[in-house]
Amino acid sequence: MNFAARIDHTLLRPDCTEAQIIQLCEEATAHGFATVCVPPCYVALAAGKLEGTAVGICTVIGFPLGYATSAVKFKEAEVALYDGATELDMVINISALKSGKTAAIQDEILDLADLCHVHQAQLKVIIETALLSEAEIELAAALCVAGEADFVKTSTGFASRGASVADIELLRRVLPETMRIKAAGGIRTRAAAEALVAAGADRIGSSNSIALLAESDESTSA
Ligand SMILES: O=C[C@H](O)COP(=O)(O)O
What residues does ligand 1 touch, defined as CB less than 6 Å away? Predict the structure, then answer.
């Protein structure tokens, strides 16, 4: 798989503009990124711009704090899928995780996974590793497996830190091979991205994707 095909080309800043989303779509087509990852309000726009291309449409659910109610997250997911999303990155209810509400979390993930799969879409669950102990990361990973998610994603990019190699190594150790891992948050260099992939990440989420590719050209020409 070429490196660009591992990347969700991301723009989730609250001050992003429609013009920047359109440029994101043009870049994704030009470079062959896996998806564009855009705010829910821009899913229909991106789906229209990317119709007929191999670029997927990713958006976020319950983002970035995770504590919307399950009913709100489900409705947000329904609308995103209706608008053309092919991958949903849903933030786990971190507060519920830290409160031991494991059954409710598993039910929420399973309901969203079922909804995605009925629409031939994929569910990634953002667990926000920066806020979790190792034990909580393992618990969140187990709930993602029980909830039949397609990916575990490390971070929103809005916490104190993003994905670390240690996060990926821990997740790879406790997850079945069938569960894919997305590393995201603060990935600014090709070397950092390649280290995360070497540790076991299947997908990279970054708002710095072009720079990552540019560095790869320099490194191969060196
Ligand atoms: O994948 C989603 C993240 O928001 C990307 O994080 P970043 O903006 O730090 O690259």
Answer: 8, 10, 12, 37, 156-157, 162, 184-187, 205-208
